[in-house]
Specification:
Number of strands: 21
Structural class: mainly beta
Radius of gyration: 34 Å
Oligomer: single chain
Distance between the termini: 23 Å
Mean pLDDT: 86
Shape: elongated
Largest sheet: 6 strands, antiparallel, barrel
Helix content: 10-25%
Order of helices and strands: HEEEEEEEEEHHEEEEEEEEEEEE
Low-confidence stretches: 1-46
Number of helices: 3
Strand order of the largest sheet: 4-13-16-15-14-17
Amino acid sequence: MTAGPGVARRRRRRRAGLAAVTVAVLATTGVVGFTRWSVKGRTEAPKTPSAPATAEVVKTDLVDRITVTGKVGYGPGRPVTSARPGTLTWLPDPGAVIDRGRPLYAVDAKPVIVLFGRTPAYRDIAEGAEGPDVRILRENLAALGYRTADKTGTFGASTTAALKRWQKALRVEQTGRIALGDVVVVPAAVRVATVSAQLGAPAAGEVLTVGGTERLVTVELEEAQRGHAAVDAKVRIEPGSHNTPGTIRAITAKSADDKSGGKTTKYDVTIAPDDPRANLAEGASVDVGFDGEKHAGVLVVPVEALLAPREGGYALEVIEGASRRLIPVELGLFADGKVEVSGRGLAAGMRVVTAS
């Protein structure tokens, strides 16, 4: 792995430091010519050299972590388009939560109702129809208290009667049928994110956008950071001093402009707090920690302990009692200002000199 310019500067300082140590050691083996010297007519004793800064070689797990700032919200919204012609006569406020059986908006004073399911409404349905949309209608009628006795997936007389009772409760025409545009099918209760249409405008195209009701965190990752994120992986949400574990729900790629005027790829990462009661204020900025590559049970030292000998490679200056020696090392993973090292004779518990 190639070290950055900061590490190179530290290595040069360490080389100068080693040269000074060598001179000092040679001096102790020969005759010391001066023990005092004169400065501007005063005689002063030489200063005692301070002990070098050291660190312990530790055996531990090293994880390549990154921290990225994200925003608390409700995740990306999805557009809702009107399939019923007419004039928009009622629209909800942004932030409103719309549950099953409630109106999402109204066209010509007739509500468009939310139903729960996975298959969107795609046709008119009435007695005699069969299919997944019929099953969704019957399941929603039952959940709203209007049970039917028809066979599974079949729109029979019982479903017609139940539908008319529900339409009566909604104070709409009791047709016993569902026309395309009468309902909007969503997986669960929705929160209105934005309202793009205006009252009195034709009910055509996008009316509003909706999202889930669950508080989420959205983070943008650069292309070089993509390897730190995977769907269902755990992350740390760090609002202040309290960390909240979270799970990555989705990763969405998008095109973005780079500094050179070209195009690059960035990624929107949607994260759900594991505790839905976590104190995450809407619109707040939070730090999110992602774990990348992990090396377990390796020897680790601070990056500042690395030396770059003239003959090449890397080494550590190990202190053993009153003596020191260099141990050549191979480098592994860099993370959190530390580096994985391995070398003959290197062991956990040793102390190595670090740059001051």
